[in-house]
UniProtKB/TrEMBL annotation:
Matches recorded under Pfam families: GMC_oxred_C, GMC_oxred_N
InterPro entries: FAD/NAD-bd_sf, GMC_OxRdtase, GMC_OxRdtase_N, GMC_OxRtase_C
Names of required cofactors: FAD
Molecular function per GO: flavin adenine dinucleotide binding; oxidoreductase activity, acting on CH-OH group of donors
Family statement: Belongs to the GMC oxidoreductase family.
Species of provenance: Streptomyces tsukubensis
Domain Glucose-methanol-choline oxidoreductase N-terminal: 261-275
Transmembrane segments: none
Name assigned to this protein: Oxidoreductase
Length: 526
């Protein structure tokens, strides 16, 4: 079956305006692609995938990894603004992908297996069955081509950053961050890509493209899910609008699987009457289930930036212009790294320019990042109209002890030490921002927070937990509390943020969810 024939699949054996499947997957993104692919391995099951964006097939702007920055803010980006952040940057735009494959079709595909402590932290928070020993096997099942940045893509200045950081930070060089757990280290990242042509190995490429001819897989593209349908406490389907503007209900015989991501999953729940009763009633939304945790626990990996002008152009070879990074454990009591850097082979000055800094013609950046930020935010609706974007209040740098702000100050200081260390020092002409004259902790903190940005890792807004956790939205089998026939599987269920980039964790959530569904399907594996 061609992709075009799948764009808005509606079967002729059901009444006009409705379609019925065994499972309806809302979101053809990182986890949704995994789940749809695994479910349709069983030819008895008919599965619909509702994806708000177009296909990624024959889209070199999407499939070519190094073109990722050109997707930000474009027609394939839902582009969510942030509410005013008194201690941070109020101009951050949170990119969420509107294309098959979701954010794995939009991001840099940095591929870290979550550290054992990340999974064990989930188990300690009530997510029974999600500890490191339970989750390890799911990484080995992933279909994505996960490899270290290829030798031909290892830019000379990035190589010298690795060597300078190893010396200045006193950490080991790591050849592959996924070979074994680490507490610190510097090296080139593992990526989910094909080095021979710089093509993505996204969730859609790995899990959907090879199986588009399955007659039981139905992908509804440019189709927007805006309301869940219920009979009593049981989810029966999803109300959607097709790309032609037609309103239909897609029915699920067995379950609805919400995989729309950490922004759009809680958004869909709230518009469907699932969330904090008082908030829903204030907007005139009929309450289906009072769940106060929907939209709470909004997590991220905030980071700041320090930029240098180089002594001239740097070599052009790269996988995606941020190919290497550093992890540091400042606190020996910490379970894992508590400071992280991306090294950008470009001058990343989007936010500093707002403060008056100028972008150098040639330059590089280090971006100190908070692996375990302590601030917690909230997502909420401002209107009952599903077309109105939700409010995202990350409450950046509001943690009581200012751990997050102090982490960025430490990061800038360490970045300067690395920049002064050979062989990197020989490339650099001057520090552009914040500038060498900015030295006091208060000044550094003010700068770091005002130019802070996101690496697009929202999570936690429908967090998983046990029956004693009043703010848990799903149980350890990913079922929404108090409802039947519906689960959530995406970054929104994260109880806490992994230390590392979360994409692989989301893929593993998809694999585990698919396995759970298989074990519960009549005739499925026990």
């Amino acid at each position: 079956m061609s992709q075009d024939s799948k764009d808005s699949d509606t079967t002729s054996d059901t009444p006009l305006g409705t379609t019925t499947y065994d499972y309806v997957v809302v979101g053809g993104g990182t986890a949704g692609s995994v789940i749809a692919s695994r479910l349709t391995e069983d030819p008895r099951l008919r599965v619909a995938v509702i994806e708000g964006g177009p296909t990624d097939i024959d889209r070199p702007d999407v499939l070519t990894l190094r073109r990722w920055m050109g997707l930000l803010g474009g027609d394939l980006d839902y582009d969510y603004p942030t509410t005013e952040q008194p201690r941070g940057n109020s101009y951050i735009r949170h990119s969420r992908a509107r294309v098959l494959g979701g954010c794995s079709s939009h991001n840099t595909l940095i591929a870290f297996k979550p550290l054992p402590g990340d999974w064990d932290e989930w188990a300690e928070r009530g997510a029974e069955g999600w500890g490191a020993a339970d989750m390890g096997p799911y990484f080995d099942r992933l279909r994505n081509n996960i490899v270290p940045v290829d030798e031909k893509d290892r830019n000379a200045i990035a190589r010298d950053f690795v060597e300078a950081a190893r010396s200045a930070a006193g950490v080991p060089r790591v050849e592959s961050f996924n070979k074994e757990p680490f507490k610190d280290g510097v090296g080139f990242f593992d990526l989910a890509y094909h080095p021979e042509n710089n093509k993505r190995s996204s969730a859609s490429v790995a899990y959907l493209h090879p199986f588009l001819d399955r007659p039981n897989l139905h992908i509804m593209l440019e189709t927007w899910a805006h309301k869940l349908e219920f009979e009593g406490a049981r989810a029966t389907g999803v109300r959607v609008r097709t790309k032609d503007g037609e309103e239909i209900t897609v029915n699920a015989r067995q379950e609805v699987l919400v995989c729309a991501g950490a922004v759009d999953s809680p958004r869909l729940l709230l518009h469907s009457g699932i969330g904090p009763r008082a908030d829903l009633e204030a907007l005139g939304i009929p309450v289906v289930r009072d769940l106060p945790g929907v939209g709470e626990n909004l997590l991220d990996h905030p980071e700041s930036v320090i930029v240098w002008e180089t002594n001239g152009p740097i070599p052009e070879n790269s996988a995606m212009d941020s190919d290497a990074g550093l992890f540091v454990r400042r606190d020996p009591e910490s379970e894992g790294p508590d400071l992280m850097f991306h090294f950008y082979q470009i001058p990343f000055t989007d936010n500093p320019e707002r403060l008056g800094y100028e972008r150098p013609e040639h330059g590089v950046s280090m971006t100190p990042n908070i692996p375990k930020a302590r601030s917690r935010g909230r997502l909420y609706l401002t209107s009952a109209d599903p077309e109105v974007k939700p409010a995202l209040d990350f409450r950046y740098f509001t943690d009581e002890d200012d751990y997050d702000g102090r982490t960025l100050v430490d990061g800038i200081k360490l970045a300067r030490e690395i920049a002064a260390t050979e062989p990197l020092a020989g490339w650099l002409r001057r520090e552009v921002c914040p500038g060498p004259e900015v030295t006091g902790d208060d000044e550094l903190s003010e700068y770091a927070r005002r130019v802070a940005h996101t690496v697009y890792h929202p999570a936690g807004t429908c967090r998983m937990g046990d029956s004693g956790d009043e703010l848990a939205v799903v149980d350890p089998r990913l079922r929404i509390r108090g409802l039947d026939g519906i689960r959530i599987a995406d970054a929104s269920v994260f109880p806490t943020m992994p230390t590392v980039n979360p994409m692989i964790g989301v893929l593993m959530v998809g694999e585990k969810c698919a396995e759970m569904l298989g074990s519960e399907t009549p005739g499925g594996d026990a």
